[in-house]
Amino acid sequence: MKVTTKKAGFAGLALLGSVVLLAGCASAPEDSGSGDGGEAIDFQPCMVSDSGGFDDKSFNQLGFEGATKAADELGVELKSVQSEAETDYAPNLTNLVDQGCDLIVTVGFALSAATVESALANPDVEYVIIDDAADNDFDGTVDAENIKPILFDTAQAAFLAGYAAAAYSQTGVVGTFGGMNFPTVSIFMDGFKQGVDYHNTEAGTDVKVLGWDGTDGLFTGGFEANDTARNTAQGLIDQNVDVLLPVGGPIYQSAAAAIRDSGKDIAMIGVDADFTETDPSVADLMLTSILKGIDVGTYDAVLAAGNGEFDPTAFIGTLENEGVGIAPFHDFESKVPADLQGQLDELKAAIISGDVEVKSYLSK
């Protein structure tokens, strides 16, 4: 299957309301969604989260919102089940298949192997996987013909965020860390470092990036907001960073706690969603956020499947098709250089035209 792109947008990235958690690997998945969008059709969409959960203020939650919106418009109810640990993935998928799901949306690289196994065993069920290529043998093709990957070349947007971080930094040191060293995590860190390096070259600065050297870096080993994530953030804070990019769902909450405890003037960069809008409790810390149109991509895929138009061709979000981008500076508007937004607009155009190259595993 060839990889193509199509138009996507960021409408709906902000939270529309509280998300109801639907937990339980052991029990059958619960129904969610109002199902009041119109006449019911013979179609059952389903969704399983990774261990970050549907309230991660990030990609699980955005995917859930997109799938729920599509289900409502189709006049059906979304069945969803939340994974608490990696051992839940395969049983949750089996559970959903047994519940008669026609389409199953899975979230994240961690669910890739279980998704492929389930898809191969159930060729009549359609699958959508968010943030993974479903190419576990790395041969450049999706491992099952009934899986549609939704991917985002976030290195392009992270490049802009890295450039902004370097322009903003007063200490000359910025940092990043991730949950696990998956391609969909390290792609943020790759783009971020490239953006900082580009600013150093163009503006004559010497801003250092801690936590990622282009190949390896700091990872907590999971995506939970816990002491490990907090201590990892603290280690970077102790090295004088004044911009911090935590990549991996809820781990940003631990980073925010470490920043507040430090009493230092440290800005944070969000991932996937605009954290100023999705989590106002950290709005005062947010320099910007690196955005992915996860809700839009998921909505489109579920709606198409419900209308009998499932297309397994991979979607890749880019700056050009507006599948990725960065959020406004919000509270930091007056704190960044006055000409920074203009520079970013020019840089975005240069990336789209190819005049500035941003490398990632999706651009090879």
From TrEMBL:
Question: Does the record carry Membrane as a key word?
Answer: yes
| Topology versus the membrane | Lipid-anchor
State where the protein is found.
Cell membrane
| Keywords from the UniProt entry | Cell membrane, Lipoprotein, Membrane, Signal
Q: What is an example of a Pfam family matching this protein? A: Bmp
User: Which ranges carry the ABC transporter substrate-binding protein PnrA-like domain?
Assistant: 46-353
PROSITE patterns linked: PROKAR_LIPOPROTEIN
A single GO cellular-component term from the record reads: plasma membrane
Q: Which residues form the signal peptide?
A: 1-23
InterPro entries in the cross-refs:
BMP_lipoprotein, Peripla_BP_I, PnrA-like
Q: Which family does it belong to?
A: Belongs to the BMP lipoprotein family.
Q: What is this protein called?
A: ABC transporter substrate-binding protein PnrA-like domain-containing protein
